[in-house]
Write a structure and sequence with these properties.
The chain is mainly α and 160 residues long. It has one domain. Helices cover 73% and strands 4% of the residues. The model has no long low-confidence stretch (mean pLDDT 89).
Length: 160
């Protein structure tokens, strides 16, 4: 089984299992799963960016499968990826960019509005970095704008 399939399956399974549960919504479950996957990848010396790409793409796929708001799921997953990178001392900017790439890839695969999905992922990443404080917010803001995955990402400056 490929690493990408394992990551995708873990995120989608977390979303499905939480459906109807009192403890967490599918979106919260996806976020927790993404955060743990990215942090674990970085701590194990793996590619946290690749884990973020795969996990955010999986969150979008999972959202469509379990019937939750896809934009909210992508935003939450991208923010969780940034938090996971920060927990493990990883490159928050690089992980944010990879998370947005995953959102774009997933949107293209599903035939949904890639710029809108990319903007949701970028907003989630920027908001999470803002909550972390320090230079993380500035780094992620810079990385989350521009052409990512062939899509021009335009995000309003959410940092005040």
């Amino acid at each position: 089984m490929s690493e990408a399939r394992t990551v995708r399956d873990a995120v989608i399974a977390a979303m499905r299992e939480s459906r109807g549960a009192e403890a967490a919504s599918p979106i919260d479950a996806a976020g927790a799963s993404v955060e743990a996957l990215v942090a674990s990848a970085a701590q194990a010396g793996g590619d946290a960016g690749a884990a973020a790409t795969q996990a955010v793409e999986a969150a979008l796929q999972g959202a469509t499968r379990v019937g939750v708001n896809a934009l909210e799921a992508v935003s939450a997953a991208a923010g969780a990826a940034v938090r996971g990178a920060a927990q493990s001392g990883g490159d928050v900017g690089g992980v944010a960019r990879c998370a947005i790439e995953g959102a774009v890839s997933g949107a293209k695969d599903l035939g949904v509005d890639a710029p809108e999905v990319a903007a949701a992922a970028a907003t989630g990443a920027i908001d999470a970095a803002g909550a972390l404080g320090g230079r993380a917010a500035e780094v992620v803001q810079r990385e989350a704008n521009g052409v990512i995955g062939g899509v021009k990402v335009i995000v309003k400056d959410t940092l005040k």
